[in-house]
């Protein structure tokens, strides 16, 4: 009896951990996306509102530093690329995690889940079918 | 962007017509594949239902493809019902194509073309589409129009989810499509990143007021969760035939709608097979072998049967289910006799399920189910009388009497069909046996009467 309840506990802990994993990844994507959006706003502001200034004040942690505009732009753009990559990786990992969770809970695997998407051209060609 | 205004779609309640097998919801099996006596509209036929259930499981697992099943039995013993049951239990994701054996004879299309189209309709291809979308609730839209009236407009759009909020700068094009969609603060919208297409999902719940004067179409939705820029994945299932059609559009794209697709060149088919196989190798597509159901299969002729033989061996082949009510008879187009009117070499490849006539109890059950389906109330005695009629004439005739008796009953403003109503329609409409009896008595007064030919040509 004791070993039985032990096993159930183990099993539930494992499921909880897997679920926690999924939730963390989701939250991380949200955080990264909000950062990405802030960066995008900054880039827009640099382009429109700061069009005529040579140097801009950039906030690093707790300090504002005057920095050349072109350098700042470059920096943010690099950051954006990095963020895009990270979000992509997280999304890829998220699938595996959700699948693992489903498997543990004895739920069926989602259909068509592991397919890789059609390319844009192919989607265009087949679109008249899909948008019925 | 096209400027034509799309007419708003009004919701109409779908009127489902009542068909002969519309009461079938599945095969009526429990988890251990044991048939229940009465379930999901199916009654009796336990052995054949269990057999169908085994085949159904194999189809679901994708274990069998390129196999064929024959359902054989007397008229009115539930052959089509079993096929419908299989179709219903397969669910919407597995393609199920049904056709009658005589449907393939057409002037516009050769028999084999019609058959291969039917085969390809029964094979599904699952593909995935992936799009990046921005989804959020509109907090504020601000559009600055130049004072002169002409020139570039600029604007800002603030979107939020439950987690974050951000400001987008708007260009001229986006402003146009936003005003075309009549987007205002409080709407929940999605923007397709690749095309810039805006879709309104509804209004946010937080903006719902009961005194707002708004149309009935306004839908309230929750403010979206999570990140603003999401990745949306949509899985579609299309049939091979549909892909064939868009790729062989010699008559323009209208062909898809008019249904008159004509013949599809075999080169087109080969190309598509190659493309689909390529997709499968790349992990872009999954092939779902579905089910092709051919009713009245004895109507096919020798050429069709040899085509079927060949087609079943192809690697893209669905599960073929056929039904027939013939015994040993001539194969159409030949003088050879064969069981079920099917050549021996094809019969050899088939799994055969037999159906047997219904017992009185089962007939009673079926009539009860049909009464519920057709919304006719039957008194206990009328039910007994109808069951007797069903046993003595045929089940189909008894089922016909249900709705007619229902009408008679409604005409005399009754609520429940009584024995008298049944008697009345029984005297009004002849069953097959009485009709032939009548013919025999009065055959001399009919036109073009040939007394010599006693039996009907059944081929």
TrEMBL record, chain A:
What InterPro entries does the record tag this protein with?
PDRG1, PFD_beta-like, Prefoldin
Primary localisation category: cytoplasm
Biological processes, Gene Ontology terms = protein folding
Entry keyword set? Chaperone, Cytoplasm
Question: Superkingdom of the source?
Answer: Eukaryota
Record's GO cellular component terms: cytoplasm; prefoldin complex
* Subunit composition and interactions: Component of the PAQosome complex which is responsible for the biogenesis of several protein complexes and which consists of R2TP complex members RUVBL1, RUVBL2, RPAP3 and PIH1D1, URI complex members PFDN2, PFDN6, PDRG1, UXT and URI1 as well as ASDURF, POLR2E and DNAAF10/WDR92.
Q: What is this protein called?
A: p53 and DNA damage-regulated protein 1
Organism listed in the record = Betta splendens (Siamese fighting fish)
From TrEMBL, chain B:
A GO CC annotation recorded here is: nucleus
- Molecular function in Gene Ontology: ATP binding; DNA helicase activity; hydrolase activity
Please state what class of enzyme this protein is. Answer: hydrolase
Q: What is its EC number?
A: 3.6.4.12
User: What sequence ranges are listed for the domain AAA+ ATPase?
Assistant: 65-357
Q: Could you tell me which SMART domains the record lists for this protein?
A: AAA
Reactions catalysed? ATP + H2O = ADP + phosphate + H(+)
* Family, per entry: Belongs to the RuvB family.
The record describes the protein's role as: Proposed core component of the chromatin remodeling Ino80 complex which exhibits DNA- and nucleosome-activated ATPase activity and catalyzes ATP-dependent nucleosome sliding.
Name of the protein described by the UniProt record: RuvB-like helicase
Source species of the chain: Betta splendens (Siamese fighting fish)
């Amino acid at each position: 009896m004791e070993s039985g309840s032990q096993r159930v506990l183990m099993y539930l802990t494992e499921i909880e951990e897997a679920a926690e994993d999924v939730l963390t990844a989701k939250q991380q994507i949200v955080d990264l996306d909000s950062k990405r959006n802030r960066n995008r706003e900054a880039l827009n502001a640099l382009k429109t509102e700061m069009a005529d200034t040579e140097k801009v004040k950039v906030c690093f942690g707790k300090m504002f530093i005057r920095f050349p505009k072109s350098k700042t732009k470059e920096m943010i753009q690099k950051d954006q690329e990095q963020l895009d990559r990270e979000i992509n990786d997280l999304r890829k990992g998220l699938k595996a995690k959700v699948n693992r969770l489903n498997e543990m809970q004895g739920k069926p695997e989602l259909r068509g889940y592991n397919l890789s998407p059609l390319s844009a051209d192919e989607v265009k060609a087949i679109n008249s079918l899909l948008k019925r | 962007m096209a400027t034509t205004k799309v007419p708003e779609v009004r919701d109409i309640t779908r009127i489902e017509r009542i068909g002969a097998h519309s009461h079938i919801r599945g095969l009526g099996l429990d988890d251990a594949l044991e048939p229940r006596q009465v379930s999901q509209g199916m009654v009796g036929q336990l052995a054949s239902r269990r057999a169908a259930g085994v085949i159904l499981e194999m189809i679901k697992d994708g274990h069998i493809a390129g196999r064929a099943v024959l359902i054989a039995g007397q008229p009115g013993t539930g052959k089509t019902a079993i096929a419908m049951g299989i179709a219903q239990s397969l669910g919407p994701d597995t393609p199920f194509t049904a056709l009658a054996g005589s449907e393939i004879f057409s002037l516009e299309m050769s028999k084999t073309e019609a058959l291969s189209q039917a085969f390809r309709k029964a094979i599904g291809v699952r593909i995935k589409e992936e799009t990046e979308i921005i989804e959020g609730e509109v907090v504020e839209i601000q559009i600055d129009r130049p004072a002169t009236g002409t020139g570039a407009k600029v604007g800002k759009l603030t979107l939020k989810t439950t987690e974050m909020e951000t400001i987008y700068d708007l260009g001229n094009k986006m402003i146009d499509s936003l005003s075309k969609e009549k987007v205002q603060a409080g709407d929940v919208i999605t923007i397709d990143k690749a095309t810039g297409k805006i879709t309104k999902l509804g209004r946010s719940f937080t903006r719902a007021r009961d005194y707002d004067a708004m149309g009935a179409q306004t839908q309230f939705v929750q403010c979206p969760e999570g990140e603003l820029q999401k990745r949306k994945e949509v899985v579609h299932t299309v049939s091979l035939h549909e892909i064939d059609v868009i790729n062989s559009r010699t008559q323009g794209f209208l062909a898809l709608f008019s249904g008159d697709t004509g013949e599809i060149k075999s080169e087109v088919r080969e190309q598509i097979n190659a493309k689909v196989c390529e997709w499968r190798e790349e992990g872009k597509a999954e092939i779902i072998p579905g089910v092709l159901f051919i009713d009245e299969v004895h109507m096919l002729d020798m050429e069709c049967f040899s085509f079927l033989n060949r087609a079943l061996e192809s690697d893209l082949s669905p599960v073929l289910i056929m039904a027939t009510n013939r015994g040993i008879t001539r194969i159409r187009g030949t003088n050879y006799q064969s069981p079920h009117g099917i050549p021996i070499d094809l019969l050899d490849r088939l799994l055969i399920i037999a159906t047997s006539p219904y017992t009185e109890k089962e007939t009673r059950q079926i009539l009860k189910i049909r009464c519920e389906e057709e919304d006719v109330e039957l008194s206990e005695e009328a039910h007994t009388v109808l069951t007797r009629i069903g046993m003595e004439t045929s089940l189909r005739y008894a089922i016909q009497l249900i709705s007619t008796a229902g009408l008679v009953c409604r005409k005399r403003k009754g609520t429940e069909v009584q024995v008298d109503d049944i008697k009345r329609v029984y005297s009004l409409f002849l069953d097959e046996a009485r009709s032939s009896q009548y013919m025999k008595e009065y055959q001399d007064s009919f036109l073009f009467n040939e007394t010599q030919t006693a039996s009907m040509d059944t081929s």
